[in-house]
UniProtKB/TrEMBL annotation:
Lineage, highest ranks first: Eukaryota, Metazoa, Ecdysozoa, Arthropoda, Hexapoda
Bias (Basic and acidic residues) ranges: 1-10
Residue ranges flagged as DNA-binding region: 52-72
Originating species: Apolygus lucorum (Small green plant bug)
GO cellular component labels: nucleus
Keywords: DNA-binding, Nucleus
Pfam families in alphabetical order: HTH_psq (PF05225)
Protein's recorded name: Uncharacterized protein
Compartment(s) where it occurs, according to its Swiss-Prot or TrEMBL record: Nucleus
Compositionally skewed regions (Acidic residues) per UniProt: 11-22
Length: 103
């Protein structure tokens, strides 16, 4: 019986790592559903017309997200990421200043 060597050169290894990175980036989808889809799915689950699994599949919402929203574990609207540095008013003021300076 002949055994095959699993010797990989550094060049091949780095190439396969970059290919793997590209696959992960291509396969990752974030927020492919709308807030309206989320609201409709939640209403359907609460009304008993759809299960969480079926609603998640139909509307393209992660099951965990839908489960947490239906059970009230997380608020209906929630901003992802760190808190903003500027308030909405401050942000609008900066935007208006930039636009006025561009004229």
């Amino acid at each position: 019986m002949e055994t095959k060597s699993k010797h990989v050169t550094i060049e091949e290894e780095s190439q396969s790592e970059s290919e793997d990175d590209q696959e992960v980036k291509r396969g990752y989808k974030r927020f492919t559903y709308t807030e309206e889809d989320l609201a409709v799915a939640i209403r359907a689950v609460k009304a008993g017309t759809l299960s969480i699994n079926k609603a998640a599949k139909i509307y393209g919402i992660p099951k965990g997200t839908l489960f947490n929203k239906v059970r009230g574990k997380v608020p209906m609207t929630r901003k992802m990421g760190p808190p903003t540095v500027l308030s909405q008013t401050e942000e609008e003021n900066v935007m208006n200043w930039i636009l006025n300076m561009a004229i």
